[in-house]
Design brief:
Layout (H helix, E strand, L loop, with lengths): L1 E3 L4 E12 L2 E10 L4 E8 L12 E5 L2 H5 L7 H15 L2 E6 L1
Parallel strand pairs: 5-6
Antiparallel strand pairs: 1-2, 2-3, 3-4, 4-6
């Protein structure tokens, strides 16, 4: 699947299961043709259920030092962890992780 308009082209690459300390997420990879960067979406729950009024969502920009290296200079890692924990508690939600 490719989503595009004249300014943006986003291509779906692949999905996989991602076991985490908060539960099993689905990870979906995307390629951004304009920036030549990969982005991911982490999802949990059944999105085919149209009765959902709202989807718990976090848009998170990549922060290598906070997310991956646990730097105390920023709160990016704890924000990401908090979002994953809340989605797992609710059983339904999405995190858009942008590079």
């Amino acid at each position: 699947m490719i989503v595009s308009n004249e300014d943006i082209v986003i291509e779906f690459i692949e999905s996989a299961k991602l076991p985490t300390r908060w539960g099993l997420f689905d990870i979906h990879g995307f390629w951004d043709d304009k920036t030549n960067k990969e982005h991911i979406a982490l999802t949990m729950g059944d999105f085919s259920d149209a009765s959902k009024d709202a989807v718990l969502t976090r848009v998170h920009s990549e922060c290598l030092t906070g997310d991956g290296l646990f730097s105390l200079r920023c709160d990016c890692g704890p924000q990401l962890e908090g979002a994953m924990k809340k989605i797992a508690q609710d059983g339904f939600g999405i995190i858009l992780y942008l590079r």
